[in-house]
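User: For a teaching handout, I'd like to show students what a predicted protein-ligand complex looks like in token form. I'll give you the sequence and the SMILES for magnesium ion. Please answer with just the structure.
Assistant: Understood, here is the input followed by the structure.
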Amino acid sequence: MVETATEIAVSCAGVTKAYGSGQARVTALRGIDLEVRQGELLMLVGPSGCGKTTLISVIAGILDHDDGECRVFGEDLKAMSGSRRTRFRGDNIGFVFQQFNLIPTLTIAENVAVPLLIAGVSRREAVGRGRDLLNRVAIGDRWTALPSKLSGGQQQRVAIARALVHNPRLIVCDEPTSSLDHETGHKVMELMREVAAGDGRSLVVVTHDSRIFEFADRIARMDDGRIVSVTEKA
Ligand SMILES: Nc1ncnc2c1ncn2[C@@H]1O[C@H](COP(=O)(O)OP(=O)(O)OP(=O)(O)O)[C@@H](O)[C@H]1O
Ligand SMILES: [Mg+2]
């Protein structure tokens, strides 16, 4: 039998990124080589300021890198036109921001429904699916609340539900359990594992939280703009 190679969801080679110019120039990524496999949960860890958010923003097509190459499902997002890239991201990528980025004037069910509404799903169905996912992250009873009426941990779970609702093939999360207690953090990670293992979706999870390392397939460590090691979990 012919062995099929592991499918690669994301491949970064020599990716660099600097912010600003002149004296204010800050180099955030110094040549990143990294592959994310299909169906894996890869955790990205490292000290504050080492470039984790910058790297996952490049991977998700939110930020353009300077040099090197980054491909997502074989596509070079940097080379895409704005509208094509927006569509590609809408179809394929879910993002949980470090600061949640919920829309303050929408209820939490509507917030979760946003990726579906953008994809053209009817409002009724989109909000219904939003509610279902809120149930799965254990805040279904608050679905008509505005984000400002929720605790930080509850807002974080809304942001996670929003990243999962349109079944993206790649889910990128920036510190998804930072505001959650141990038990809720575990529940959220179990949901994410289920999503990854279930249908071959890939997750990249930035975290400082060693309590959730057990959910990783591999852990990539970053320091000062570089990947310094990638360890396989048993
Ligand atoms: N918009 C920006 N303008 C200028 N410099 C930036 C910007 N965003 C990040 N940086 C700098 O780039 C470097 C990497 O930042 P990044 O946010 O990627 O780090 P991080 O690993 O996510 O840190 P944390 O764990 O604190 O979230 C830091 O030195 C930071 O100050
Ligand atoms: Mg960050």
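For the handout, you might add this sentence: Helices lie at 52-59, 82-92, 108-118, 123-136, 152-164, 182-199.
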